[in-house]
Amino acid sequence: MLTQLTVSNYAIAERVELQFSKGMTALTGETGAGKSIVLDALGLAMGGRADAGAVRHGAKRADITATFDVADIPEAADWLASHELDDDNDCILRRVISKDGRSRAYINGQPCPLAHLKDLGGVLMDIHSQHQHQSLLRKETHRKLLDEFAGVEPLAADTHAAFKAWNQTRQRLIERQQNADETEAKLQLLRYQVEELDRLALEDGEQEQLEEEQAQLSQADAVLHSSHQAALLCTEEETSAAGLVRQALQQLEQLPVEVPALADTLQMLSEAQIQISEAGDNLRRFVDDYEADPARLAEVEERLSAIYQMARKHRIGPEELPELHQRLSAELAELDGGAGSLEQLEAELDSQRATFDELATQLTDARERAAVELDQRIAGELAQLSMPNMEFVTHLNRNKDDEPAPHGQQDIEFLVSANPGQPARPLAKVASGGELSRISLAIQVVVAQTSTTPTLVFDEVDVGIGGGTAEVVGRLLRTLGSNGQVLCVTHLPQVAAQCHQHLFVSKFTERDATFSKIETLNDQGRIDEVARMLGGVDMTEHTIAHAREMFSKGQATHH
What we know:
Largest sheet: 6 strands, antiparallel
Mean pLDDT: 84
Number of strands: 15
Shape: elongated
Distance between the termini: 20 Å
Strand order of the largest sheet: 2-1-4-5-6-7
Low-confidence stretches: none
Number of helices: 20
Strand content: 15-25%
Oligomer: single chain
């Protein structure tokens, strides 16, 4: 639940620090005093849109911090843990807005994307606006409210995902069917190209190996001639290398005295004579065994010519042919009996339709069961709100031909009948503004009772309501607060008299600047505020007595 809200330099609030407790908290004050500051600040802490106008005039930035206790909110605790932002049972959401309109978001002191505030804020708090009854005229709102009441949001999300998958496959199939001639021509071309590459059967690295072999074979005569000449120069002529080294060695061996300094030289010449002789032997064996192979050369050149021709045909380098072969083969497989074939797409479409139908049927059954209970409970609340004859119907209209739709198998619409015996008709065609406000409140109260959101905020949802009905509204909100935490902005003394905690909002001017102040009222302060709400500026003893009686009754009626 919300435990604390700190607001600095936001709108006309210079500094506001509020402590919250369980139960129902009412915010009251004169029109324009700044009651909306609290709710707007909470909305910003929940990731709402911000602009430079939010910053108090003369300040550099607005700073809003909302603190929650998540000890009894496992979904929020799990979210924090999964994002490594958990800090015992505390959850601190902070929003800093600069005067240029830019903003920064923090969770438990760590910078975070604004989307994280929205995700986590949706788990922690639900804000019901005074204008929410206007959205009640839209069928989309009806479906969302029913799904929330039925607790089938995950199933609805799965159904929507199944529809999306089915629809995407359907679009692919339609496209394939519309382009059948073009696809068939592409298939024929792919088959021809792949067959050519299959026949070529070029392996990775083969081209490079063939080019090296061609270079060797094409120079066979030159290699043989040079090798033969080298063999002669090594050992077989009078002036061969081996003969010259032998002569040098003989000259040194015939010296009249032994010269130690030439010992290494003698060793080197001796070893050189041996190596030259071995090199000559090797060259002779190479020349004797070497054979030029014109047939193999022709074969290699023919293979290379085929590779070069295929590469030119596809306007790529020869080394890219194996990759092209693989890619075209995969494309052919996909179009010709693979994942992109008509047969495969049709089978996939049937499978996805079966998945959608199964999920949508489960969703329909759950919605139909919930609709009966929702209608009964809303009717009960409407009776308390002085609308006993108002019939409320959640109408589920099945889609034409059971065609899949994003949100299931039926269209959902709230209908009402204001008079017995009259058929139920859409809200927009039947309910007046005042009736619509009360219907909206009844729906919100019923849905909120099944909501897992621990903190519920009602922003003047009691507008247009008065008299005994207003007392019932206060009772409903207090009952909700008894099961969790409710914050409500109200102008009705009947509602304010029944809250557990009362915050009074006022504004004052000092040094040509306007300030907003919010204070927690004690019992006497609450009586005085209820009296103000009852009697306006001129409060009489009768008004104060009436306020005291209303406050005592409101507090004694509930425990």
